[in-house]
Design goal:
Blueprint lengths: L2 E8 L9 H5 L6 H12 L6 E9 L4 E6 L4 H9 L14 E3 L1 H11 L8 H15 L1 E3 L4 H9 L8
Parallel strand pairs: 4-5
Antiparallel strand pairs: 1-2, 2-3
């Protein structure tokens, strides 16, 4: 019977210690090899918590590693090089993204999203910008959302 293990690891820094090692030990896998593969697959998310799903067939010792993406807010903070969002996002802004950076984040998250296309995903990322106190191209993200909705700004798929 195939077993699944879902964990959060820091990008590129999984270790054979808890929670990974104790969960993998009874399955008879080479823990060092699994940790190395997880670190390789998550290295682009350094400094962020990344969801990882490990599916193992205990009989054959075959396994697959599926890496999710961090939350949109974590990707925004990484893009800006900040540790946390604003405590009062309406009054205090913590950074300013370029529209290209918003599109980059949207493309990273699209496969994990229910958004039907890149335009909808960009709107979702802009919504997260509002909640953590980030402007985009010097504007309130809500203004940008309105311009995208009415066709002033075109987001290509």
């Amino acid at each position: 019977m195939v077993q699944s293990l879902e964990i959060l690891v820091e990008g590129g820094k999984a270790t054979p210690g808890p929670p990974l090692g104790p969960a993998l030990g009874p399955l008879g896998l080479n823990i060092g090899q699994v940790v190395k593969e997880i670190n390789e697959k998550t290295k682009n998310y350094e400094g962020m918590q990344v969801p990882v799903k490990l599916t193992v067939d205990p009989k054959t010792k075959q396994y697959t590693i599926t890496v999710g993406t961090p939350p949109v807010s974590a990707l925004i903070k990484k893009e800006l090089g900040i540790e946390k969002g604003s405590g009062s996002p309406k009054a205090n802004k913590v950074g300013d993204l370029k529209l290209d950076q918003v599109k980059k984040i949207a493309k990273m998250k699209i496969q994990d999203s229910l958004s039907p296309n890149i335009k909808a995903m960009v709107m979702e990322v802009l919504g997260s910008c509002v909640s953590i106190g980030v402007t985009v191209e010097g504007m309130d993200p809500k203004e940008l959302q309105a311009k995208i909705s009415n066709g002033e700004i075109n987001i290509e798929d």
